[in-house]
Amino acid sequence: MRWDFEKLTAEAGQEIAACSDLKTLEALRVKFLGRKGLLTEIYASLPTLSAEEKPLVGKGANELRNKVTQLLEEKKNILESSSSSGPAHSIDVSLPGVAPLVGHAHILSQIVEEICGAFEHLGFVVQDGPEIETEFNNFTALNIPADHPSRDSFDTFYLETPDPDQKGRNLLLRSQTSPVQIRLMKQFKPPFAVIVPGKVYRPDAVDASHSFVFHQIEGLLVDEDIKFSDLKGLLTAFCQRLFGDKTRMRFRPHYFPFTEPSAEVDISCYICDGKGCSVCGKKGWLEIMGCGMVNPKVFEAVGYPKGKYTGLAFGMGVERMAMLKYGINDIRIFSENDVRFLKQF
Ligand SMILES: [Zn+2]
How many domains does the chain have? Predict the structure, then answer.
């Protein structure tokens, strides 16, 4: 046979492999596949061949054309991807990789974790409870009287589902995390120390400092012989852990139905260290939570023996803690899903 296709294929392969630029590659394409190229020449010779040779040469020529076309295409891709003008889809394994986008916990989740973590260090255990509650757990057992304004439907979301425990009343969306205290006291025998994060709901109009849903963290410690000084020591340790070692703390007398005595907790402003600035409203102090000794009426409501146990309780707003810690002045920004805000934390 006039053509040795095996040899031609091997030679074409070598020439294409040795080629190092697109211009030379184009010259090779013309040499093999062009109008005056080798394959045209082979196909042109077909009519002059014998009947036995014709199919063999035709087959060999087709195979050679396919192989050369494939090699030229592959080489072209390689040469294009290594030049800057190459198409974007080509892969250069020597370039640094593109790191995938990795998200992170929302700022409120981070604060919840930080606060719960601080109390876990002090021996507390994280617990949670349902967001749909009974009026007994949310109000009655917490010594909130039947005519208290917070029970009004203007201050609490009532559901249409009837309360299975109390005829004529409906279930509600908890307006505080405190009902979880009631559930846990019914479930556990003292001593125990729990920290309870969760969402709470109130029909408040949304503005810079109010929302119909927000987060609270509630703590409860019950044992025999727990004193007010335990409460003060515990909260001092917590405040210094969260806001820094130099933080000072003070109690202001207050009233909560479920604790007696009750207090509001202020810390020295971490911006001005008590001198007065715009964050603390020139007061030098920042209000961060409410606390007190568990009211004996609450122990009575959950069926504890009279006079046997004492306990301490405290609660704080998570959004408020985040706003204080990072100087954020609008509660709405936490739920607007603005990535420019969220990725700062
Ligand atoms: Zn200040």
Answer: 2
